[in-house]
Structure formats: structure tokens, C-alpha cells
Amino acid sequence: MRDTKESRLLLVLLIAIAFALITVDIRGGEDSPVDGARQAAATVFGPIENGVSGAVDPIGNAVTAVRESGDRHDRLAELERENAALKAELGSDDRSRSRLKQLDKLLKVSGKGQYGIKGAQVIAIGAAQGFSWTITIDAGADDGIERDMTVLNGDGLVGRVTTVGPGTATVLLATDPDFTVGTRMESTDELGFASGQGDRPLRVELLNGKAEIKKGDRLVTFGSQADKPFVPGVPVGVVSRVDPSGGDLTRTLSVTPFVSFSKLDVVGVVVQAPEKDPRDTVLPKKPKPTPTPTVTVTVTPSAPADGLNQQEQ
User: Which stretches of sequence are listed as region Disordered (predicted)?
Assistant: First the structure.
């Protein structure tokens, strides 16, 4: 429609009629004279509205889904946090059980050897105080720890205390190249000196070059004067190799330590030495040898061939 004077007049007239119909409809209420027209319009335009609503509803549903997915995401995140916390708790329980097991072994060792010990936990490992193979424990002078005390765990000799602070102490491990301890062979009482070799087995020099030693023999600490730095009877390790003597005055052994130095956690510092040498009583029981099955082959004589039987006949 062109914008003319007549079109503008027609538009104003239509607007006036629309306002008049709205006024009549409002005043008429349920008896409105345009009610029939409204119903007819509803009949005509209802399906169209439903179609439009159906087209718009997926968008509304999508918005709702996004909102609900946000709620679900929050719940999922909460469940994931709960799951992580539960795993951490279970891990903590496993670690606690492991520590209790280590502590139980430590108490058994101290009981057998009659060592008065102060329990401690390893809180650091690595180079400290200029040493290469050391650990730091959470016990120090305030706990009665002093320099040159023996440190052990439920498996055997760990090392000796070298530096003491108020609440911590540094322990030189038996694997350190600067570490040396006097040893005594189980049963034979052969004496020697064990030295650390880092991640390799301990090196033991026996004073008797003709000593009869075999693989599997075990060693304990010989002990030091006034029990410092080493108390006697602490398990050291098992002979893994015996070098030929070659006429030397000493005999060299390779000894695998009882202690796993890469898994140190709970240790004990011997603050009171035993009244008497426990000798071999602290060593664990030797495992029983597994019997080797013996296979017996019985040869059964075979029956003579038919041809030979016929010739004999």
C-alpha cells in the first residue's frame, strides 16, 4: 500500500475500530458480542499456534536441558570429588596398615634383641649434610636422640645417626661408601668389616682369609665399644657371593642387605643398648628348603617280536 492521504485515513479508522472492539469486549465480559469471533479465530489460528509452539519447544527444552545438565555436572563433579576423597582415605588406610606392619616387625626385633628404641618416621631422603646416602627422621635431641646411635627397622640395620637437631636427625645409611660396620658371621663367629657401595651389595672383608663361607650365610653387627655407634646382634644381610681368597690375608664377600633402602618409612633409633649381646637371636628364621621332586623311570621289558617266536618254534 502506497503512503497516501487515503491510506493514512484508513489506518487511523482501523485503529479506532480496534480500540472500540476491545472496549466493548472488556465491558461485555462473558456476554461479549465478539466472543464468537474470538472462538472462530481460535479455531483457525489454534493449530498454527501449536505448530509454532512445537517448533519453539525444542529450543526451550534445550535451554532447560543445559540448565539441568549444569546441575548434573555439578553433581557429577561432587561425586568425583567424593570418589577421590574415598580413594585417598583408602590409600591412607593402606598406608596406615603398612606402617602398622612395619612397626610390629620393629617391635619384634627390638624385643628379641632387648633394644630400647625410639620410633621415628623417614621424612626426607637424599643428599644432606654433605653425605650421599642419607635419610632425615622426625626425631631429634628433644626425643633423646644423640649422634652415633644405631638405626634399624623390622628387617635389620639401617645406619647410624650423624647429625642431630632439636626435632630431626640425619642418618647415614649402610649403603653409603663412607659407612663401615663390624660384622660377625652366624654360627662361625668369623669377624669382618662391611662397607657400603651405593646401590650395589655391601662389601665385607673377613679377617680370616681361609674362612669357610658359602652363599646364603648371614651376618649381624659385632658391636662397638660402649655400644656406639653400633649395638651388637643387628641383622646385616646374606652372603650373595664369595670371592676366591687367592692367598690374601682377608676374604671378600658380597652381602645383600636385609633392609630395602628404597622403601624406608618406619625406623627405630636404639637409645638403650641391650644388657648382653643377643648374638644370632634377632636373625629371622631361615626359610625351609623346597624339596626337589625326584622322577623315577621304570623300564618295562618289551614282548618278543612275532617273527622271532616263529623261528624259535
Answer: 274-313
